[in-house]
Amino acid sequence: MDMDAFFAAVEEQRRPELRGLPVVIGGSGDPTKRGVVSTASYEARKYGIHSAMPLKTAHKLCPRAVFLPVDYEEYSRVSGIIKGILRGISPVMEDVGIDEAFLDVTGLNATPEEISTEIKKRILEATGITCSIGFGPNKLIAKIASDMQKPDGLTVITTEQDIEDRIWPLPARKLWGVGPKTEARLKGMGIDTIGDLASLPYDRLSAEFGESYGHFLHEASRGVDDSPLVTQWEPRSVSRETTFEVDAGNWQTIARTIAGLAKEVSGDIRQRGYKGRTVTLKVRFSDFKTLTRAMTLGEHTDSYETIRRTAFQCLQKVDLAGKRVRLLGVRVTGLAH
Question: Which is catalytic among the residues 100, 118, 164, 208?
Answer without folding.
Answer: 100
